[in-house]
Amino acid sequence: MSLIETKNLTAFYGDFQALFGVDLVLNPGETIAVIGANGAGKSTLMRSISGVLRNDPAAVLHRGQAIGALASPDVMARGIALVPEGRRLFPSLTVEENLLVGRHGRKVDGPWSLETVYDLFPILKERRRNPSTALSGGQQQMVAIGRALMSNPEVLLCDELSLGLAPVVIKDIYAAFPRIRETGAAIVIVEQDIAQALKVADRVYCIMEGRVTLEGRPGDLDRADIHAAYFGAE
Ligand code: ATP
Predict the structure, then answer these.
(1) Where are the domains of the chain?
(2) Ligand 1 lined by 13 (C-beta under 6 Å)
(3) Atom 31, ligand 1: which residue's CA is nearest?
(4) Which of 17, 20, 24, 43 gets mutated to test ligand 1 (max ligand atoms within 8 A of its CB)?
């Protein structure tokens, strides 16, 4: 059975329709990437799965159960954690306090604790008593990932990890993913950088103007097809 499935998922902001019937499958232990240009609907898809945007119950399934209408704390309690676009750390809290916030939503034993998150991102241990605002963008992204991991999720949704970060920092962040995968978590990575997505994912979905325009394994996808699915036919 799939871990997460969206079925004919639509999303609206007021009258504006951002998603038009998105069907997506995430299998246990799998890493998928969702690629697409600015405004394609990638973040909306992540918000819809994570309960930030509520929906028809049956539009999002977790292990076959309808969760589309649940609020985000209830989705998180089921083991589906979001690393939101823009990190959204708590500025008045230290690094360690931000990490511990992830623990509150779901107190489940598993591979992740302060110790193992610090092991994954050693710089965070050094900076654990600093306010999160004192960190660089890359370090803040590590805190956002660590905070999500602290809930020992079975699904990790990562929205635009690379946004505003230098290539060398992006490399450091992605270097953590093999270890996250090893724990058995399934991962959804939203990424504008096609090459990065193809490198990290088992399967890729491309979204354009709120619709899935392409789906497949990186090795099976043709460059021209990806280009057309991402930018539209010329
Ligand atoms: P980006 O890379 O810019 O984050 P995206 O693929 O994640 O793009 P979304 O953020 O999901 O795209 O946006 C999809 C569409 O919905 C866009 O046209 C965007 O302008 C619109 N949209 C997003 N958030 C809102 C909102 N809060 N209110 C109204 N429209 C919104």
Answers:
(1) 4-87+154-231
(2) yes
(3) 13
(4) 43
Q: Give me ligand 1 centre to Cα 210, in Å.
A: 10
Nearest atom within ligand 1 for CA of residue 43? 7
- This complex has an ipTM of 0.94
- List Cα–Cα distances, 97 to 24, 129, 209, 217, in angstroms: 34, 9, 38, 39
| Sites in the chain below the pLDDT cut of 70 | 233-234
Pick the CATH number of 4-87+154-231 from 1.10.760.10, 3.40.50.300, 3.50.50.60, 1.10.3210.10: 3.40.50.300
Phi-psi region at 184: left, alpha or beta (left = phi > 0; alpha = psi -120 to 50): left
For 2-54, write each residue's pLDDT tens digit.
Answer: 999 999 999 999 999 999 999 999 999 999 999 999 999 999 999 999 999 98
Rounded to whole angstroms, the Cα distance separating 23 from 214 reads 11
Tell whether ligand 1 has an atom less than 6 A from the beta carbon of residue 36: yes
Task: Say if ligand 1 is within 6 A of residue 47 CB.
Answer: no
Quick: pLDDT tens for 143-155.
999 999 999 999 9
Rounded to two decimals, what is the model's pTM?
Answer: 0.93
Q: For ligand 1, atom 25, which residue shows the shortest CA distance?
A: 13
DSSP 3-state of 126: helix
Question: In which region does residue 164 sit, left (phi positive, over 0), alpha (psi from -120 to 50) or beta (all else)?
Answer: left
